[in-house]
TrEMBL record:
InterPro entries: Glyco_trans_2-like, Nucleotide-diphossugar_trans
Species name: Psychroflexus salinarum
Protein name as annotated: Glycosyltransferase family 2 protein
Glycosyltransferase 2-like domain boundaries: 8-169
TM stretches of this protein: none
Amino acid sequence: MDKLPLVSVVMITYNHEAYIEEAIRGVLIQNCDFQIEFIISNDKSTDRTAEVITKILQESKIPEDIIIKVYNHEINKGVSTNFSWALEQATGKYIALCEGDDYWTDSMKLQKQVGFLETNTDYVLCFTNCSTVDQNNAIKNLNFIGYTEDRTFEEKDLMFVAPTLTRVFRLNKKLVISENSIVAQDSLMLIEQMKLGKAKYLNFVSGNYRKHSGGVWSSLDIISIRESKFEIAYYGLKVSNEKSLFFRKSLIELAKLINQNEESFKSKFNKFLINHRIYISLSLKQTVLFKCYLLVVSIPFLSKLNKTRILMRLIKGI
C-alpha cells in the first residue's frame, strides 16, 4: 500500500441532506488496487447534511484503502471558495470530483480512469459518460453526453462536455483558478487544464448527475446562467488590459439583454460587433470559446444560416 494516496476524491456539499448518502456510498464501493483519500467539504449546511455524513460513516464498513477526511466549515465559504479550498487539501497524484448531490454507480470507475492516466502521460484528464436523474432518482437521460465511442480532445477543440462527477485529472498545484463571481468554476478549470495536455473520453457510464431545484445551476434564473457562461467565455481570453475590460463589460451587458425581442437584440449584437471588431479579430484561437457560446448558447433564435454568417464575419475580423 502506498504511503500517499494515489487518488484524492474531492466532494463539496451544501444542504445535500437528501442526497449525500448516495454520494458517499458511490465512493465507498470503489474497487481499486491503490489508496484513496476521500475529502468531504461541508460548507456550513443549514440542514442535516453534517449529521447524515457522520451517521453514514459510523454505520458503514470503510474499506482499508480509503482514508476519509471530513471538514465541516463554521463559516459558509460559497461554492467557488469551498471548491478551491477542498482542492488545496488534496495530496493524491490524481483528483476525482463528485459533488454531494451526484453519485457514482460503477465500482470500477476510478480503477479504469486512473489506469488510463497512469499509462498515458500525455493526457491530463479523462472523463466518462453519465446518466441524469431527478430528485427522486428517476432517470431522465441515459446518455447525457451523447458520445458513443472513446474520443480524444485537445485545446483546439475547446467546446466539449465533461461532466464534473466523471472527471479524473492530474494534480497540479500550479493550476490556480481565481475565485470570482463565476458559478461554473469547474468549467474554468477545464479551460486551464486543456492548455497542459489532452483529455480522454472513456465510453462508459460511471454515475448519475442529479438535476434538481436546489442545484447550483438549476436554482439560477436564465439571465444569471447566460451571464455566467459569458463570463466563462471571457475568462478564456486571459487578458487584462483596459481594452479587454471594456470588452468584458460590454459582453456582460449584452448577456443581460438576451431576453429582449429578436430585432432589439440583433441591433445590440451588431453594435457590439462594430465596437469590438478589432479586439475580436486579434486572435482566432483566443476568442473561439466566446464565439461558440455566443453562437450556440446565447442566440438560440438565429437560424443556422445567420449563425454561420456571423461566425464567418468574426473569423474574418468583420
